């Protein structure tokens, strides 16, 4: 309420100073983060085009032998490949894309300026997480449509699939933010892309895990990408119930990654 000196008129004037409500700030920042992700051509190549091309290529061409009993025609190949490519989509967005984008925002002082805005730091991270989830929904919708067109026959419970994807997102987000918040931007760019390529080959996404030596299988089986791709494959390909071992591995990675990111992340 304000009183004027001339006429003693009181009233409420607009715009009113002060920060917007916290939920509105988070929604606005999440919308901005999503638009930035979708407008970045390099990120679109990484998060959308590469997984889609891999799904189409390896489903149509007999390049990698899938496990026994799953290679009876292109439809059977895509039944094996589609869950792995969905896991790859989560990896590309929640880990690689987020690590690179956040690393360069930190380098150019964007995070430092946002940290002193009315939006709290945890609110900024929440907005980034929401942007990642929106992008993943679009990715999964596109990849699912392509896989169905290639003859995919998914099984299992959608709720179990959603739980696996959420835990996978949490695990990869924690690792991506940890990398972005501790390394230089150039190092983050190189390391994130290298990890993406290594996990693409050794994470059971395209190449079945049983193609590796037994000693390597025991180590690779503990990786979050392996747990996510194997869990999705158990549900979507074999119609299994809840894959507790895979969920447990993802939960451990999520706790460790997010905890380490919260502890060691540097804003400048």
UniProtKB/TrEMBL annotation:
PROSITE patterns: ABC_TM2
GO molecular function, one term: ABC-type transporter activity
Cell location: Membrane
Domain ABC transmembrane type-2 positions: 42-268
One GO BP: response to antibiotic
Transmembrane helix in keyword set: yes
Membrane-spanning residues: 44-68, 80-104, 130-153, 159-180, 187-209, 247-265
Alphabetized UniProt keyword annotations: Antibiotic resistance, Membrane, Transmembrane, Transmembrane helix
Membrane topology: Multi-pass membrane protein
Region (Disordered) residue spans: 1-21
Keyword match rRNA processing: no
Pfam families noted in UniProt: ABC2_membrane_3
Gene Ontology CC annotation, any one: ATP-binding cassette (ABC) transporter complex
Protein's recorded name: ABC transporter permease
The species this protein was found in: Streptomyces nigrescens
Taxonomic path: Bacteria, Bacillati, Actinomycetota, Actinomycetes, Kitasatosporales
């Amino acid at each position: 309420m304000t009183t004027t000196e001339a006429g003693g008129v009181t009233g409420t004037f607009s715009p009113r100073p002060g920060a917007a409500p916290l939920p509105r700030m988070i929604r606005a920042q999440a919308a901005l983060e999503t638009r930035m992700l979708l407008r970045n051509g390099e990120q679109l190549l990484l998060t959308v085009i590469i997984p889609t091309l891999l799904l189409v290529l390896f489903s149509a061409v007999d390049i990698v032998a899938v496990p026994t009993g799953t290679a009876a025609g292109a439809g059977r190949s895509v039944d094996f490949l589609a869950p792995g490519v969905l896991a790859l989509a989560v990896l590309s967005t929640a880990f690689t894309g987020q690590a690179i984008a956040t690393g360069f925002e930190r380098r150019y002082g964007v995070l430092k300026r946002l940290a002193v805005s009315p939006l709290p730091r945890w609110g900024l991270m929440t907005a980034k997480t929401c942007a990642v989830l929106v992008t993943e929904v679009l990715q999964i919708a596109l990849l699912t449509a392509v896989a169905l067109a290639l003859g995919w026959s998914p099984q299992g419970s959608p709720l179990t699939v959603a739980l696996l994807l959420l835990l996978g997102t949490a695990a990869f987000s924690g690792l991506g933010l940890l990398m972005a918040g501790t390394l230089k931007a150039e190092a983050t760019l190189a390391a994130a892309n290298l990890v993406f390529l290594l996990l693409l080959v050794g994470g059971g996404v395209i190449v079945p895990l049983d193609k590796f030596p037994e000693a390597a299988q025991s180590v690779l089986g503990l990786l979050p990408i392996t747990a996510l791709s194997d869990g999705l494959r158990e549900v979507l390909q074999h119609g299994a119930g809840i894959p507790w071992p895979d969920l447990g591995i993802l939960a451990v990675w999520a706790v460790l990654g997010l905890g380490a990111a919260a502890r060691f992340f540097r804003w400048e």
